[in-house]
Structure to design on (486 residues):
């Protein structure tokens, strides 16, 4: 008689592992319920969520690397690109690709523009100061010099005249947002695209956050491919298409414009590598989930969800203006709001107070002449809870006004302003962490219960110093977990 074959798995039982995952997830922000007003998007449709999860799991092991091996994925990608093209007024002959998210879509748009001008050794792109930081990331990765132009100080929209002055013979791309993330306003796309077309330059519209909402609203000037001169548009499905993360689409007016981010290599002994995006291997799960959810919700369903989120945004904006000490920074064009305070309180204290009451709102630092703001992304699922949100915001603001604005230690503030980021070694960084109240045992990061004092310190930093400090924090957070004792 022989012993039974032992199981191949040698770790904890599946049930125990799942329990550990649930315990870790309990410390995260909620992804559903409409109370997290950044990072996540909730349609409020339980059946769509369940369908997306099932499709995600069903295709999680499929690989989008080779369309001949998994033709279903190519079919789904083509279907999604066609759906987006209809929404965005794409002309005959347009093409697209599915990516992992808005940042990859933007990277590829910049890459295609750069490679579309091979005669330039030092290409540049012109973008408004409100453009998403993903363009600066693309500039850093791809060696394209960013020429950042101030926005209109009243509307916070791109200034086409100033952008036209910034364009020169090295410019390969100009950028507009629909809408800008930070302020929620749509740039004058027609004017920006016209200045690009006049110089024979590409124009990319970043509609990552608005592309599945704005087509269903009727109060905006044209911003899609209906505008001559718009050469590419990015739109995320894992935002207002309410699909599981992460999937975005990058659409080009024609196939020649896309060619710069296609890649092939037969110069090695393996298979010929052939890609439309930065990724090679990519799970079919997010693509299949997006295909399933968009088919299920349908165009009419998305129109209803967009109008629901838009009504909620306007209702919330009107309610904010009735709260002493608060106001909306600029009238919203879509479903994003930026709130600011008078000198009786600060947005960092508000963010802490709202989190304590079960609402996540995102503090944004001052930028140029724009003061610190509180960013709100309104999903359809948030709409029924707007009165509750406003009640909590009113109570939180009253408490913040009673306490007064958070104060920054003058000495520490002066140190941060004078800080040379290039001279910040590990020992100096450890000292700064301790001064900021972020230092734990052994120099590890220990986040406080109240982030307002930390955020106020960061707000006092010049951008370069803030970047250096936060990269140091990220570095300390991104360290291997010590192995448990046997």
């Amino acid at each position: 008689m022989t012993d039974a074959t032992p199981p191949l798995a040698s770790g904890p039982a599946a049930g125990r592992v799942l329990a550990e995952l649930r315990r870790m997830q309990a410390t995260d922000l909620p992804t559903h319920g409409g109370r997290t007003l950044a990072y996540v998007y909730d349609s409020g449709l339980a059946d769509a969520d369940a369908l997306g999860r099932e499709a995600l799991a069903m295709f999680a092991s499929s690989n989008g690397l080779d369309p001949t091996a998994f033709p279903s994925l190519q079919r789904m990608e083509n279907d999604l690109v066609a759906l987006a093209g209809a929404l965005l007024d794409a002309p005959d002959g347009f093409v697209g690709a599915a990516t992992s998210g808005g940042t990859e879509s933007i990277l590829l748009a910049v890459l295609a523009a750069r490679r579309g001008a091979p005669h330039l050794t030092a290409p540049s792109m012109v973008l408004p100061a409100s453009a998403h930081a993903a363009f600066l990331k693309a500039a850093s990765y791809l060696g394209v010099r960013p020429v950042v132009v101030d926005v209109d100080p009243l509307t916070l929209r791109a200034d086409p005249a100033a952008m036209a002055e910034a364009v020169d013979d090295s410019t390969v791309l100009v950028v507009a947002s629909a809408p800008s993330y930070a302020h929620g306003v749509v740039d004058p796309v027609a004017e920006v695209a016209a200045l690009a077309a006049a110089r024979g330059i590409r124009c990319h519209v970043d509609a990552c956050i608005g592309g599945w909402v704005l087509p269903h609203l009727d109060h905006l000037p044209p911003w899609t491919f209906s505008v001559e001169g718009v050469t590419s548009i990015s739109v995320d499905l894992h935002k207002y298409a309410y699909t599981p993360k992460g999937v975005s689409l990058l659409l080009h007016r024609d196939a020649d414009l896309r060619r710069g981010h296609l890649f092939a290599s037969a110069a090695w002994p393996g298979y010929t590598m052939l890609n439309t995006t930065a990724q090679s291997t990519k799970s079919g799960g997010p693509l299949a989930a997006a295909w399933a959810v968009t088919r299920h919700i349908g165009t009419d369903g998305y129109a209803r969800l967009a109008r629901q989120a838009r009504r909620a945004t306007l209702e919330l904006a009107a309610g904010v203006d009735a709260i002493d000490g608060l106001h909306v920074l600029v009238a919203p064009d879509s479903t994003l709001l930026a709130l600011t305070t008078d000198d009786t309180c600060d947005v960092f204290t508000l963010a802490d107070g709202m989190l304590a009451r079960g609402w996540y709102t995102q503090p944004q630092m001052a930028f140029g002449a724009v003061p610190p703001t509180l960013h709100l992304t309104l999903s359809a699922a948030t709409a029924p809870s707007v009165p509750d949100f406003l009640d909590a915001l009113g109570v939180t603001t009253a408490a913040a006004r009673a306490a007064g604005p958070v104060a920054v230690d003058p000495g520490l503030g002066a140190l941060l302003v004078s800080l040379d980021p290039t001279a910040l070694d590990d020992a100096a960084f450890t000292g700064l962490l301790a001064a900021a109240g972020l230092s734990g045992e052994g120099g590890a990061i220990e986040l406080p219960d109240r982030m307002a004092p930390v955020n106020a310190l960061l707000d006092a930093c010049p951008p370069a110093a803030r970047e250096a400090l936060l990269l140091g924090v990220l570095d300390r957070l991104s360290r291997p977990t010590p192995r448990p004792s046997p």
Observations:
- Residues 77 and 98 are 6 Å apart (CA to CA).
- The first strand starts at residue 95 and ends at 99.
